[in-house]
């Protein structure tokens, strides 16, 4: 029996050695962990996630990200920043994602105040952070001021608030021209901007630059971004004699604003930024009001910015049932990251940063090139953004004008801007 | 501009008054600072959304059901939670705010953060003295006035109302006089929750529904009842009008500071409290309590 026991022990040891060897030979799965950070109970965060998921699925199906002979699978980690309920939650969520979930890259956020906090956390850990939602130029200024610390930060969407201001003025100029031509009167503009970091430069620029262009600014109204009723502000604007309102609204205030604006038939054309009006369910949420509301946007359903635009929109709608907002820029962000990693042939953050700086990429939202401060470049041939308007319950593209009057930029699918019927009626009676 | 301030001020003050009276009532009778009061208002709004928009029920039936459900929720929360800890004022504060936060998180989980809208009972707008006012706002103001009068008549002219007032003045004496104090407190809780639910039904179509919609009204209601004198219905009514008009004055006179309207209203409250720590009608109320 002794020899039988000895034999069994030897056999067992041999099996264990074989198992250990075979385990060692098994190919190690390499993954790139991307933390998608946003308010996941809100549409903003859900679009962050949906855009990222589409890109990750496509990349993984095509074999992943190639680094030398290794293939990296993209693994997404959902990080709920809760920033629309509590701004301070965002930084702790980012810290947890980096230290506990071991994400290699962060992308997302919406509120500038939250994005600024997340930026600090990401830079502390030298983690690449690609913003897909906040426009404040404070973030890119930090890259200029302290490159070594902030070089890991890049902005994908939207363009920074200085560019947004210029875009706003282009839309305002287009509507002012229409008012001059159709109503035969000079434009009188009221500014309706929520009180937030991102609107400060827009409000200041409107007061400084629009009057010399013949657009009188008759007042600035600044409700809270969470205001639930702005009828008093709107009646004050009517009382002040405005025939145009320039909006800068990213919060839920955009819904009661647009609803009361049409229902009260405020005789002033509304144009600018109303993030709530960028979403498909805007018309439903306003109870069918808000027709003619005009806002900047990144995408419009039938407008082809690049060859990638319409296939992405179709895929996104098929997946979520909703038109993608600028938060779905995580899709472009992941592809830009993939290309940078493959060019760098490394997953080291410093190597990736060098190649991100060299980005020259045709994405869903246009042609991506980063400036010296890691901001996405805005202008003809780069990211242009779009002006969109609700016409008969449909969100349609209205800027850049179809006649190519803005630097010759023409996109398929753009239609003419329309003044609200009640505004025309009021001022021509 | 004056017409704008008066009309918008009246509409806003009416809504605040409706919420503040319900809040003040339960404090006056049961000495409970129910910080979940505006959460009941939010619950009513979301229930109407679920029943009328999601389930497709008739709007009036949805409003009725929502009020009934909120009243039952209010009574259950009183019976199961608040009544057991009401002797400890600080605990009651924490527990009622916890109830509100739980409700907020439940709605956030159930409905997400996407803003929702409730259909209006009447749509369109009407010009009053050259000021465009939403028809729903006019209806709201009218119903608020009716409810305030009805509440006053109920408290002054009915046996139950007299019993409630007696309980508010002195629980022990009311008890000795044969009044069923716990039942009066429960009845008051039901009325208070019903007023919150009616406010939700009337105001929800004018606002946007989000799971955080209860916080701003709560701050305003607290300010109103402190300004008017805790537990004083008359004080709450006057406090509502003072703060409602203060907010509108800021919007019209300092438009670029309209985000400060709540801060200005609260500053007025602080100034009044510094001069009269008991609030505008607090002394009368305390005297009434003996």
Task: Give a summary of the structure in a few sentences.
The complex is a heterodimer of chains A (429) and B (290). Chain A is of the alpha/beta class and 429 residues long.
Q: Any descriptors?
A:
heterodimer, A: 429 residues, alpha/beta, Rossmann fold, 2 domains, B: 290 residues, mainly alpha, two-stranded antiparallel ribbon, 2 strands, disordered C terminus
Describe this structure in words.
The complex is a heterodimer of chains A (429) and B (290). Chain A has 2 domains: 30-158 and 305-368, Rossmann fold (3-Layer(aba) Sandwich), CATH 3.40.50.2300; 162-297 and 385-428, Response regulator (Rossmann fold). Chain A has 15 helices and 15 strands. Chain A has helices at 2-25, 43-61, 89-99, 112-124, 137-145, 147-150, 161-183, 200-209, 231-239, 254-263, 282-285, 309-320, 330-344, 349-357, 421-428, and strands spanning 30-38, 65-67, 70-80, 105-108, 128-132, 153-157, 188-193, 216-221, 244-249, 269-274, 294-297, 361-363, 366-368, 386-391, 394-399. In chain A, the strands form 3 sheets. Chain A has a 7-stranded mixed β-sheet with strand order 8-7-9-10-11-14-15, with helices on one face. Chain A has a 6-stranded mixed β-sheet with strand order 2-3-1-4-5-6, sandwiched between helices. A two-stranded antiparallel sheet of chain A has the order 12-13. In chain A, strand 14 (386-391) and strand 15 (394-399) form a beta hairpin. Chain A starts with a helix and ends with a helix. Residues 21-26 of chain A have low confidence and may be disordered. Chain B has 290 residues and is mostly helical. Chain B has one domain (2-210). Chain B has 12 helices and 2 strands; from the N terminus they run H-H-H-H-E-E-H-H-H-H-H-H-H-H. Chain B has helices at residues 2-30, 37-54, 59-85, 89-111, 135-157, 159-169, 171-176, 181-203, 215-228, 233-253, 261-275, 282-289; strands at residues 125-128, 131-134. In chain B, helix 2 (37-54) runs parallel beside helix 4 and helix 9 (215-228) runs parallel beside helix 11. The longest helix of chain B is centred in the N-terminal third of the chain and has 29 residues, at 2-30. Chain B starts with a helix and ends with a helix. Residues 283-290 of chain B have low confidence and may be disordered. The chains are: A alpha/beta (429), B mainly alpha (290). The A-B interface holds A 39, 41-43, 46, 84-85, 194-195, 219-224, 226-229, 231-233, 235-236, 238-239, 252-253, 255-256, 259-260, 263-266, 276, 281, 284-287 and B 1, 4, 8, 11-12, 108-109, 112-117, 119-120, 123-125, 131-132, 134, 137, 205-208, 210-213, 216, 247-248, 251-252, 255-259, 262.
